[in-house]
Amino acid sequence: MGCDGKGSFVMKKNDALRGQRAARRRWIAAAGLWLAAAGLVFWARRDPSGVARVFVPWARRAQGALSHAAVAPFPLTECLAYALAAAAPAALVVTAVRSVRGRSGRPALRFLSHAALWAGALACLFLSLWGLGAFAPPLANRLALDTAPASAQTLYDTAVWLRDEMNALAGQVPRGADGACAGGFDALAGQAGDGFRHLAARVPGAFEGAPAAPKRVIGAGLLSRLGLSGVYSPFLGEAMVNPDTIPAHLPFTMCHEMAHGMGYVSEDEANYIAFLACTANPDPLFAYSGYHLAFIYCANALGAADAALSARLWEDVSPLAHADFDAQRAYLKRHEGPARAVGEAVNDAYLRTMNQPEGTRSYGRVVDLLIADYRARTM
Ligand SMILES: [Zn+2]
User: Fold this and answer.
1) Domain tally for the chain?
2) Which of 24, 131, 147, 246 has the fewest C-beta atoms lying within 10 Å of its C-beta?
3) Residues 274 and 257 both lie in one domain
């Protein structure tokens, strides 16, 4: 069927009107989604015990179901993130060209309406599947742990306990020619759930429902340069771990990401649960990894608090454990560069929005929980 010039003009006008109406609907839907996200955060801030009672068990079930459903052996979230990273600049360029050619801001507004709608949908999904857990009361309350401020002496005593356990295990783990720990990613990933199962039997109510095994990230080099050993995706319940992490720290990192998958959002709690799951694991490499990283956190805190006690602490560190400190230093040196500062800044900003005002320093707050654990053991 033919159509004269006037008809074509009318059709174009109708198309433009339809486009404007669709964009308006997207803006309204996006506003609704962002309001819903704000409402969820408002509720969680006002009712932390409700979050613990209602939301955390739901999030743990949802994350467990997602992690067991995401059967692909590679991280789907990472693939989607790369696809988005490639598509977003391309869409921006197309929008800019259309805006310049048509001498109109409408393509840009249309693009923004799509972006606002998708971002709102992702924010709602993120919060309702996992993120609201950031507002739950501290795990220390539930486990009746005493996290009162500690003296440098108590911190030293805690670090000595961790050091001695680390030293005792250092000779029981497989080691390579350089003396550092050795362990394959897939075998360790397959064993990571064992510690959680032992932990759930020992502490009922807090650690049931271990998520599926962690997955190796595809862009390991990129993550190493960004200073990231793992990332958790609550959209698909994927615990993604950087396989370039030194073997002495791989089990701890795997358990840290899996702890996120059990609904624990804050970094100090994920670190503490990783310590508990590692030290409950029958494999000595897991236990060694738990004590090695817990020792590092406490030794760093003691170094800042009391130089004399810190020097005394390091005097009796086993040479085998030192081989793993050397391996970690070599790993960091291999991947140093400006990208690490960018990775840290992004992670810091993300954590601050997630109700963790200390940003990346909140990882180190695991020291309070380790001291409380030491107090509970020695009382
Ligand atoms: Zn984490």
Assistant:
1) 2
2) 24
3) yes
Indicate if 128 and 208 belong to the same structural domain.
no
Contact of 287 with 281, CB cutoff 8 Å: yes
8-state DSSP, 365: G
pLDDT at position 314, please? Answer: 97
DSSP annotation of 173:
S
Model pLDDT for residues 244-276, shown as the tens digit of each residue:
999 999 999 999 999 999 999 999 999 999 999
Do 296 and 265 share a structural domain? yes
pLDDT digits (tens, 9 = 90+) for 103-156: 777 888 888 999 999 999 999 999 999 999 999 999 999 888 999 889 999 999
**Cα gap 193→189, rounded to integer Å:** 8
Question: What's the CA-to-centroid distance between 102 and ligand 1, angstroms?
Answer: 46
Distance between Cα 242 and ligand 1 center (Å): 13
Give residue 208 CA to ligand 1 midpoint distance, Å: 19
Query: Which of 102, 120, 135 represents a domain boundary (last residue)?
Result: 135
* Distance from residue 168's CA to the centre of ligand 1 (Å): 28
Q: What is the mean pLDDT of residues 353-373?
A: 82
- Asked if 72 and 220 sit in the same domain, the reply is no
Find the 347 Cα to ligand 1 centroid distance in Å: 10
- Ligand 1 centre from 355 Cα, in Å? 14
Model pLDDT, residue 216 = 96
In the reported structure, the alpha carbon of residue 270 is separated from the centroid of ligand 1 by a whole-number distance in angstroms of 6
Task: Reduce the DSSP state of residue 205 to 3 states and report it.
Answer: coil
pLDDT at 4 over 70: no
Q: Show which of 101, 135, 169 is a domain's final residue.
A: 135
Cα R_g (the chain), whole angstroms: 25
Name residue, tokens 């709602």.
124
Residues 79 and 206 placed together within one structural domain of the fold: no
Better pLDDT: 274 or 340:
274
CA of 96 to the centre of ligand 1 (A): 37
User: Distance of alpha carbon 150 from its chain centroid, rounded?
Assistant: 28
Copy the structure tokens of residue 246: 């030194």
Let me know whether 226 and 152 are in one domain: yes
